[in-house]
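Bit of a strange request maybe. I'm writing a small parser for structure token strings and I need a real example to test against, not something I typed by hand. Could someone generate the tokens for this chain?
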Amino acid sequence: MPIRNFVLMMGLMGLSCGAAVAEDSAVALPPVPASVLKTGSAPEPTTGGGITPQTIKVSPGINEIVTVAQNHLNRIVTPFPSPRVRTVSRAETQVEGNVVYVASNSEDPVTLYITPGENEALAISLTLAPKLIPPREIRLELAGVEYSRLAQSQPASKKAGDSDDTVQQEHVAQLKTTLRELALMQSPSGFSARPVTANETVYCDQAGIQTTVGQAFDGRHTTILVAKTVNTTPQRVELDERACVGQGAGVSDVVAVAAWPEVWLEPGQSTELFVVMKQRGITDEQIRPSLLH
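Reply from user aminoacidic:
Good idea to test on real output. This should exercise your parser:
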């Protein structure tokens, strides 16, 4: 599904790519007592008899116990574009994009450490409890503060041999994918939803266009603000996406702006506006106050 009137401010977004899977048999992990595994609740079936995907908020350093299917392939959607898996379990693991596939034919618990590529500063710790249930999809989300740590500890870099044009094309392709997911009313891959702060706004320098920010998503290097945009004039107008910018603490540099599903708005009609901004990671304490105020 294409995004209409997709506006890009080029060269302002850094992303890294690649994928790797690793096993380190030299690392000895402590066994997980059976009594601990009993604390995890089984997933609730849907009315159709299936099992719905489970979304889990995770924090590095805290082990999460998750029920998965035995003798089936399980899908773990991570918040990392290029996750790396470490385990001493006999379970089979495979990484495709930001997804880790896990299969175990035993009831033995499977302990995984998932890191963002080669970066070892952050690690998600999971203990999988295989049960005789249908295949599972587990979606992992990091808190916004953890994304900030990730962005600081893993700066963007381009692969050896990649030209600037190649990197830029990858950035544009990733942006289009992210905006398409938003248009399909999905949470974008690699982003974590969080409450909107009071100082996060979207402003369109266009008469009669009123915006209200209702959603915020944090990624590795970017923040997305989603605003409800209304035509308050008595005539039909075309929303000029190039006139719209986002504002918020530690966020600047507009990367992309897109309106969906409408660009031409009748009087009183509304549309959603997606504003993607590059994070600078500047805290309030780091901002120098002006001597003129």
